[in-house]
Amino acid sequence: MTRKNQIGRIVKCIVLWGFSILVFVPLIIILLNSFKAQGDAVNMSFSLPKQWIFTNYQEVVSQVDVFGAFRNSLVVSVCTVIIATTGAALCSFVLSRRRTKLHRFMYLFFLLGLVAPLNMVPAILVLQRLGLMDTLAGLILLYSALVTPFTIFLYYGFIGSVPREIDEAAIIDGCGCMGLFWKVVFPLLKPVTVTVIILNFMNAWNDFITPFYVMNSSSKMPLTTMVYSFFGQFQRSWNLVCVIMVLILVPIIVVYAFGQKYIIAGMTAGAVKG
């Protein structure tokens, strides 16, 4: 390696480390402020706490139903992942393998969901007619509908890279349609499947606005809405708000840590195929 290439590599590493630090700074600020007193946390500074107050977490647990909200978020996120991933994978397999005009139109119709904004009025009316307002099932179905277009977009491109000869060999060996997909094709979709699981989980887990439209009962609210318990017109307990943020971030970091190596492969395949 020449000296010029070495210098370029060092500069590249420095730049990448700089961007990484910029990403982690807000997370560190949130973590530090979760251990500060209410007055010290107002400025949301990067400084260490003057006094480490570990009881902030205990105070949050005692004032709001954190475990119930955590359970609601987990149920909604996991069910959204299962419904959206399963439905989109099956739909994408059919659309990718049968390239008729009708299936092409259906694929483009699904892609409209990537650019069309969510209109809450018709969504709320549909949920009311179905009796799903103020229910976790209604929130799950709404999230599933929102993430399905992007999930189909990723699966469609990845399935297009799977050779059709594999389908033909499986059919000759006696596989039916469902057996062909679940036993032969789906195991080959591991990178994109992990990608959509992580992205769909993050979308459902991190959403803050939608529950306020479709949920009325505080006992059914997800964890993200607990921020309002400590921030309002007459109260701004930023230290306790940061505690909630830390609790929200932990599952996301864990899920991403286990599947991050598949994200680039899944995103790339879904972006260039089809």
From TrEMBL:
GO biological process, one term: transmembrane transport
Bilayer-crossing regions: 12-35, 74-95, 107-127, 139-159, 180-202, 238-258
Isomerase recorded as keyword: no
Family membership: Belongs to the binding-protein-dependent transport system permease family.
Primary location: membrane
The keyword Methyltransferase appears for this protein: no
Residue span(s) of domain ABC transmembrane type-1: 70-259
Encoding gene (name): araQ_66
UniProt cross-references to Pfam families, sorted A to Z: BPD_transp_1
Species of origin: Robinsoniella peoriensis
One annotated Gene Ontology cellular component of this protein: plasma membrane
Stretches assigned to coiled coil: none
Name of this chain's protein: L-arabinose transport system permease protein AraQ
InterPro entries: MetI-like (IPR000515), MetI-like_sf (IPR035906)
Topological relation to the membrane, as annotated: Multi-pass membrane protein
Subcellular location: Cell membrane
PANTHER family: ABC TRANSPORTER PERMEASE PROTEIN MG189-RELATED-RELATED (PTHR43744), SN-GLYCEROL-3-PHOSPHATE TRANSPORT SYSTEM PERMEASE PROTEIN UGPE (PTHR43744:SF8)
PROSITE patterns linked: ABC_TM1 (PS50928)
Keywords: Cell membrane, Membrane, Transmembrane, Transmembrane helix, Transport
